[in-house]
Design a protein that fits this description.
2 copies of one chain form a homodimer. In chain A, about 55% of the residues are buried. Chain A has a single domain, classed as TIM Barrel (Alpha-Beta Barrel). In chain A, strand 6, helix 8 and strand 7 form a beta-alpha-beta unit. The first copy, chain A, is built from 12 helices and 8 strands. Chain A has an 8-stranded parallel β-barrel with strand order 1-2-3-4-5-6-7-8, surrounded by 9 helices. The longest helix of chain A has 17 residues. Chain A is α/β, with parallel strands linked by helices. Chain A is globular, with a radius of gyration of 18 Å. At the A-B interface, helix 8, helix 9, helix 10 and helix 12 of A face helix 8, helix 9, helix 10 and helix 12 of B. Chains A, B: Keywords: Lyase, Metal-binding. Chains A, B: Belongs to the HMG-CoA lyase family. Chains A, B: This is Hydroxymethylglutaryl-CoA lyase.
Chain lengths: ~300, ~300
């Protein structure tokens, strides 16, 4: 099972405290030293709208370049792609939102236009030698429109697949999914894009995130997103928690005999380190409860 | 799906603040008004060892007696059973620990002796017209011995089943289970006790509690324990969280189309009320994140 560490991007982006460039690099370095082989390190969105990510190029200049480690950057337009190529990311991740209202509010752009933008980005990214991945956001529900029909997610996946992504991800952006819906949407994704790898992105906003992640594993998903410490949050529910935590996910997978290659104790250390930087407690539970079974 | 509300017993027992008898009755009344039909209301253990439960008889005197609502009391010996009968509970729950060390430390009694005690309690409880249930504690792991073999749990279940319980429960007392183990142990329980109802009791200590609960539902379990607000904790990991929360469990089941008959908003209200009494935040996430989809 591949863990895509999204703490440096999705985690920090939803934290109010601006983290310094050296600390972002330290976080990424700690994840890589723990064994993570894929990191969503940065995003190349408008720095006026997302100041936490304004230093994307500087972060990418300093990340450890280790054989077998890939860095992804989120892009939403061709200007972002140009910055991503210049910064030297290994892959770009384009987000298409499954709800029209959320898409317009979040990306100032409807779904149709975003799919066209994705097509243009895909062609240019491939020319530049980058891997491409599309994340279908709000696939399990929308904060503005409510329920999102699986048929709509399947249709978006089909249209996104036409531009040949290496991978398509289903994201439960606001944490409203349940395991049964994970199965339904993964089946839809396989129908829509039989040639693409499948990835899932869960938030634990309502305590279903880990159940969803393990359901995705049972359904044969290759890659799961997680964030060191479970930091981050949800802009639509200010008191809510963020991404599923890397350490809590790895713990469950370890106990189920699913290898990730990531060292649990090192991730717990990284989460405790980040908690000091963010001046808030670690949302993940494993650091508080302790690894079981403990060392004798 | 039947929800056994264990907040008044397992939840409060692990809270340091002593809750008054009227507040315990208010908590139980709120759960019943929300639609809960089965409550572990009290325990009849040594009041010097567990002062939080010293008022068990007084609580049982004042709980609302509603058609179809059953109250359970935990008992560990015949003296406890006598008190339970006198207090007018509808069912008694006897705990047998799956690890020898934990059994001796927790109940001052080895597994063999506890199974004998259970047999004596079962006979007397049946004579008194009470339902009986056995909970196999630490079935997923022990804080002292580490891993607990499924074969041992199956053997304990088989010996417990010989005394004819109405129900046998598997308890992940310290929150170390994963969904694959839930399936294995439920299969073992069915082999060992084909005539007994199956119940599961999960803690979310390491963020696997809800995944485990939903795995148990998928495996056909009739009843799940949960605690309003997810209060309580784990004496072996002082910073850890407690039982899975009634509202977060019901939310997931609601969205999966599994009816519980319990009103989500009323449970969230009860959790917020209890948070004031205990002077601590609600561990459950739903009250913070909000019900999805929201009312239009």
């Amino acid at each position: 099972m591949e863990i895509l560490e999204v703490g440096p991007r999705d985690g920090l982006q939803n934290e109010s405290a601006i983290v310094s460039t050296p600390d972002k690099v330290r976080l990424i370095t700690r994840a890589v030293q723990a064994g993570v082989r894929r990191v969503e390190a940065v995003s190349f969105v408008n720095p006026r709208l997302v100041p936490q990510m304004a230093d994307a190029a500087e972060v990418m200049e300093r990340v450890p370049r280790v054989e077998g480690v890939a860095y992804a950057g989120l892009v939403l337009n061709r200007r972002g792609l140009e910055r991503a190529v210049a910064a030297g990311v290994d892959e770009v991740n384009v987000v298409v939102v499954a709800s029209e209202t959320f898409s317009r509010r979040n990306q100032n752009c409807g779904i149709d236009d975003m799919l066209d933008t994705w097509g243009a980005i895909a062609a240019d990214a491939r020319s530049a030698g980058l891997r491409t991945t599309v994340t279908i956001a709000a696939a399990f529900g929308c904060p503005f429109e409510g329920e999102v029909a699986p048929d709509r997610v399947e249709e978006i996946a089909r249209r996104a697949a036409a531009h040949g992504p290496d991978e398509i991800a289903l994201a439960d952006t606001i944490g409203v999914g349940t395991p049964d819906r994970v199965e339904v949407l993964l089946d839809a994704l396989t129908r829509a894009a039989p040639g693409a790898r499948r990835r899932c992105h869960f938030h634990n906003t309502r305590n279903t995130g880990y159940a969803n992640a393990l359901a995705a594993v049972a359904a044969g998903v290759d890659t799961l997103d997680a964030s060191v410490g479970g930091f981050g949050g949800c802009p639509f529910a200010p008191a809510a928690t963020g991404n599923i935590a890397t350490e809590d996910l790895i713990y469950a997978l370890d106990r189920m005999g699913v290898p990730t290659g990531v060292d649990l104790a090192s991730i717990i250390d990284a989460a405790n380190w980040l908690a000091v930087r963010l001046d808030k407690p670690v949302p993940a539970l494993l650091g508080r409860a302790g690894i079981f079974p403990g060392t004798p």
